Amino acid sequence: MPQRPTRGNNQPPTPPEINLVAFQAAVSTAVTVALAQIHNGNNGGGNGQGAGMFEICGCPDEVKVKFATCTFVDQALTWWNGHVEAMTLPVANAMPWT
């Protein structure tokens, strides 16, 4: 976790280095799990969303990561929020679906 600046140090903290290959693999795994939950009607909220959510919503590829991450709950949501904090939301949402 980045350190907070001290009173005498006005320099912003250095962001952590991110292994993009490992990060994309982790995101891919998390999204696959979230999609499986949606497909099985269990997105953690118990509202029974069924298969084909992307098709039903007409979700284009360029926003599928953003859409899928909105379904994260519990540990997946905590994991995603940590990565968003490290890389900023616009960068995280701009990740390619494939």
UniProtKB/TrEMBL annotation:
It comes from the Eukaryota. This is Reverse transcriptase domain-containing protein. It comes from Lactuca virosa.
